[in-house]
Amino acid sequence: MSILPVVAIVGRPNVGKSTLFNRLAGKKLALVDDLPGVTRDRREGEGRLFDLDFRIVDTAGFEEADPDTLPGRMRAQTEAALGEADVVLFLIDARAGVTPLDKTIAQWLRVQPRPVILVANKVEGRATSEAGLSESYELGLDEPVAFSAEHGEGMVELYDALRPYIDAFVEARQIEAAEDAEGEDSADGPLKLAIIGRPNAGKSTLINQLLGQERLITGPEAGITRDSISIDWEWQGRAVRLIDTAGLRRKAKVTEKLEKLSAADTRRAVDFAEVVVLLLDATLGLEAQDLRIADMALTEGRAFIIALNKWDVAHDQSRLFQGVQAALEEGLAQIKGVPLLTVSGKTGKGLDTLMKVAFEAREKWSRRVGTSTLNRWFEKAIDKNPPPAPGGRRIKLRYITQAKTRPPTFIVFGNRLDELPESYRRYLVNALRTGLDFDGVPIRLNLRSRTNPFDR
Fold this sequence. Notes:
Number of helices: 12
Structural class: alpha/beta
Strand content: 15-25%
Low-confidence stretches: 175-187
Number of domains: 3
Strand order of the largest sheet: 2-3-1-4-5-6
Helix content: 25-40%
Mean pLDDT: 83
Distance between the termini: 59 Å
CATH architecture of the largest domain: 3-Layer(aba) Sandwich
Radius of gyration: 26 Å
């Protein structure tokens, strides 16, 4: 787990919190748009300001709302982020000046047991922001840091304001951090597990059930999650990094800019993950879009699991399971043996099995087979089904080696391999899966022929 201090960014909607988050993270992790309320769940990342390192947390815009509404649930996430923070950056819009909501947030922050740094954002035009800077003293939170998250102005001033708190944290945790580092198993890092699927499949609900808390905003509204949210967690003493993602619809249906950004963010999350769980809504069954999403994850070479969610409310379960299984065998012909599990994000059914299978999938995905073992298998596979002889000329397969893992990648050496039919390549891949226990894992097989110096 991280021993870095946690810096949370809070403020009302559309004051530039996500822009500041991206500035401190050094990359565009959070979605940014002129539309208020883009951020909904709190998002975490590694932040750096000159020589200061910390965990940075982006939060939703703070609004007065009923707890049962979506804005109310977003506010609860902001309050939870504050509870975990070591320092709070309270952002206001210097061009707009101090609003009644800013005063409400300031009053709330003043009674919290956390140091608060007031940051007056959007000061790139000093003439238009000077009045807002003067008004900010009314909030009773010391001198504001004049800042422009968009243009990076005021970085030195923000550094000077943050440094005393970061130094105090580092000094207090130095001994504890050393002890934690000794206890970590560096050979086995956290399982990076991404949950993907169509909108409203129950991804956030399932992660909340795993965590045992309402960490992510959920509700009947489709498309609540927009950013890919990464959360560090432990399952039976083993480190896990859970990644919640935005629901993926068919490209033809995606017209809004935000949804396009969310879809791209989900694809980046798949690139980052080791194991990907495709969550299906058992009440809707398998659709063509699910197969497209599965193909995306497999193309990226991730270890792959399919889980039927909402199993507690599914009808005719046996027939449904068999139907989905048959459709997957036909629709995902490029990979055999993908685990198909039944779970319920609402009740927690099957989640321990899901985690167990996820760790097993990563182990297969990361496994390396010795060259001697691999070639003994290779000889048997060729004897059982020799390669064809197009035009009466034999294709010679000499030996095989594993070039890399994650995903398992193999290279076959031989002669005239450019004439080897695709069907025989598929035979070798399927034989690898069954013969060397790579079921459900994407396998890449490359062919390499010896160069003939007399070809010219």
